[in-house]
Amino acid sequence: MSYTQTITTTQTFTMTSAKYIASKIASDLDQVRLFYGNPTEESISKYSLEAAILMKEKCLKNLEYGFKRSSDDKVVFSVKYTVAFDGTITDDGPGRIPSGANVENTYFFYF
């Protein structure tokens, strides 16, 4: 005689999930701020709160933060995220924020 047991779990994307992911984003942006002086701490708080709210409402799938050259709008560097509604985030992995990029004559952007 043999027995089989099946367990089913449901994972709901909650505001807690969104805040957790937003905290990872805020941490990366804080590292960008330490290296390059931008975005400000206040902006980081606003960006992460906005991301959490949009993720919770399932209105956000991709995020990108970085610097663009003022003269031609080309990206000098950026950090990209893809949000899955199971509470996970895909990003470029650890160490993806370069410490020596030339951000002279650039502006910070997010999309």
Kindly describe this structure.
It contains two helices and four strands, in the order ααββββ. It is of the alpha+beta class. The chain has a four-stranded antiparallel β-sheet, with helices on one face. Helix 1 (15-36) packs antiparallel against helix 2 (41-56). The longest helix has 22 residues, at 15-36. The chain is elongated and about 70 Å long. The model has no long low-confidence stretch (mean pLDDT 83).
Brief overview, please?
This protein has 111 residues and is of the alpha+beta class. It is 34% helix and 24% strand. It has one domain (15-110).
Summarize the SSE layout with pairings.
Blueprint: H1 15-36, H2 41-56, E1 62-69, E2 75-84, E3 88-91, E4 106-110
Antiparallel strand pairs: 1-2, 1-4, 2-3
Helix pairs in contact: 1-2
Descriptive key words:
111 residues, alpha+beta, 4-stranded antiparallel beta sheet, 4 strands, 34% helix, elongated
Instruction: Estimate the mean pLDDT confidence.
Output: 83
How is the biggest beta sheet arranged? Answer: 4 strands, antiparallel
Any idea how many domains? 1
Largest beta sheet: strand ordering: 3-2-1-4
Question: So what's the overall shape?
Answer: elongated
Give the low-pLDDT segments.
none
